[in-house]
Amino acid sequence: MARMQFVGAVLVSVVLLLGVAQGQTFCDCDYDIGTFCQSLEVIGMSQGVSLCEETTFVCDKCYCVEGGPHTCAVKDSTALMFTSGIECEVLPVQYAECPPPTPTPSFTPTPTAVPGPLGWVLSAPGEACNDTCTDAAAPCNAFAISDINGYGTSDPAGFSAFMDMQFGVVCSTSNCFAPECNGPSPFYISSSSVCPVSPIQGLADCGATFGVAQRVCCCGDFADCPGP
Questions:
Q1: What is the CA radius of gyration of the chain?
Q2: Arithmetic mean of pLDDT over the chain
Q3: Contacts with 13 (C-beta within 8 Å, 6 or more apart), sequence order
Q4: pLDDT at 20
Q5: Which of 75, 84, 98, 224 has the most CB atoms at less than 10 Å from its CB?
Q6: pTM for this predicted structure
Q7: What is the pLDDT of residues 178-224, one digit of tens each?
Q8: What is the mean pLDDT of residues 130-157?
Q9: Strands 214-219 and 119-122: what pairing?
Q10: Those residues with Cβ within 8 angstroms of residue 195's Cβ, 6 or more apart along the chain or in another chain
């Protein structure tokens, strides 16, 4: 004959709901996660009476408990119950229907701000110093840039040594009198290994660029950008 099986989570709940008052529709409840449940399965008949065996398995249970943290609906149903020995029959039962468990919120760490460059920095090709000095605490220092530009006009060899020491760049220093050199000087042109400086510069322009040249930028105070 075909076997009939009832999941024993309902059966276990029946035991836990014995103290629930007749007609009660809600109860305080809680979860039991990863516990053991039982199911009854009809394995045969004897003189018209069903015979059952019990199977235990891991499950998540919901049960009524005084002072529980949740409120559950009390439901009516039927389940296989042992009546005598291994004899069993389907009987009316009550069980707790818990709300879905609230998922544990995942922790998302706050990203740590990455500080921008500090001191003398060689910009990316075609980039202005304002875009190179990205830390608000260490903005582009136009006065320090003008000072190093002036040093380059008065001591070209010394400025070439400065570029080598600071950035590992080997270049020849040359004066650029074109107006478009005023704002971005000094800068480095890698294709020709030249480091132009402007003898007529008033004050460096932190937002200026010169083609794909790399600007010599000071990010921060004078103390962050020591001279040669």
A1: 41
A2: 86
A3: 61, 62, 63, 64, 93, 94, 95, 96
A4: 52
A5: 98
A6: 0.53
A7: 999 999 999 999 999 999 999 999 899 999 999 999 999 999 999 99
A8: 95
A9: antiparallel
A10: 152, 159, 160, 163, 169, 171, 172, 173, 174, 186, 187, 188, 189, 216
